[in-house]
């Protein structure tokens, strides 16, 4: 009987702990009816450019973080963003062939001791505290940090030698807030909030001048 009671209390404790963690995550992510969900992202420019032996792109985003996301950042939660560009060669007889891909990973965090914002940028996923290999920059304001994320210039996405002048090629671009990098309880809470659902993508066909 004692073992049974102990097991029951242990189970209740685990369930209560999980509930409290989720409740805290929801509170931290800003489930407040007084806050308007104002986070937004828009792709205002996507220009492919041929330079020397590479195909590059210039992308410009109109990215705004709502109060819920900013509050979570100030309370110590790091927020991750991902930009990805892919080039495909169309094939009528088979699935399209991917001939180029490039990714940029951003980790944005607030440092309460210095009251500064730190942005890490890498071509590889930034998981946890594994920041080795990333470029780190510190900023006085959130706006300054966001300005770096908003602009992606001269970004190489494919080698020119892989482009086929006799075939059609297309470019696909995507940018998003990577909710999967949040701690598990926060992922559950963020999944129900439009303020955290930041994502934009666009596909365009490459001109003949770019693939020759």
Write up this protein.
By secondary structure, this protein is of the alpha+beta class. The protein has one domain (2-211). The chain is 26% helix and 41% strand. A six-stranded antiparallel beta sheet has the order 6-5-4-3-8-9. A three-stranded antiparallel beta sheet has the order 1-2-7. A hairpin with a 7-residue loop joins β3 and β4 (97-111). Mean pLDDT is 84; it is low at 2-9 and 12-36.
N→C terminal distance: 80 Å
Shape: elongated
Radius of gyration: 22 Å
Number of strands: 9
Number of helices: 5
SS-based class: alpha+beta
Largest beta sheet: strand ordering: 6-5-4-3-8-9
List keywords for this structure.
elongated; 3-stranded antiparallel β-sheet; alpha+beta; 212 residues; 6-stranded antiparallel β-sheet
SSE arrangement:
Blueprint: H1 2-28, E1 40-51, E2 54-64, H2 67-74, E3 79-89, E4 97-111, E5 116-122, E6 135-139, H3 142-150, E7 151-159, E8 169-177, H4 184-190, E9 199-205, H5 208-211
Antiparallel strand pairs: 1-2, 2-7, 3-4, 3-8, 4-5, 5-6, 8-9
